[in-house]
Amino acid sequence: MSALPRSAGPALEPVREAIRRDAEERAREVVDAATRQAEDIRGRAREEADGIRSRSDADGRDAARTEAALRSARLRRRAGGIVLSQEEDLREQLRSEVLAEMAQLRTDPRYPRLLDALRAQARTLLGRQAQLEEAPEGGIIGRLGSRSVNLSLPALADAALERHAGEVRTLWQD
Predict the structure, then answer these.
(1) Could you tell me which residues belong to the region Disordered (predicted)?
(2) pLDDT tens sequence across 123-171
(3) Which of 45, 91, 102, 126 is close enough to 130 for a disulfide, judged by CB 3.0 to 4.6 Å?
């Protein structure tokens, strides 16, 4: 797949703006949910750590230090695994929501203009002789010989999410 040239920016601005607005709204929802989930996970981890500390003190100083260190490491690993799993779930949820929003673009009255812009972009990337077809899920796929360009709505959504992966990652980090 070929990267889009900088000159494609203006033609894709309506798509970017729609994705940006939807992503920001979804991101706020995801951030709120992630914050609540992270606070809950931290609270449970603190409670369990407090319980471990209390039991360890009763077993003696040396045994308590060893046991607390082992349990703390396990808790950190388990909490880390839970957080990573939640982050992955949130990433996938955001991707699903972005893809759903992109699919709704097909019913937008401006969609034919978007298709025209994507066709022009495919021809710019591949050449005038490129064979273009509308992707089943929306957007355009272009081919010329062994070269191809995927400007389908899901491919554009994935590319946008990839470009903003760092921003998305910060949504659930302290």
Answers:
(1) 1-66
(2) 999 999 999 999 999 999 999 999 999 999 999 999 988 888 888 777 7
(3) 126
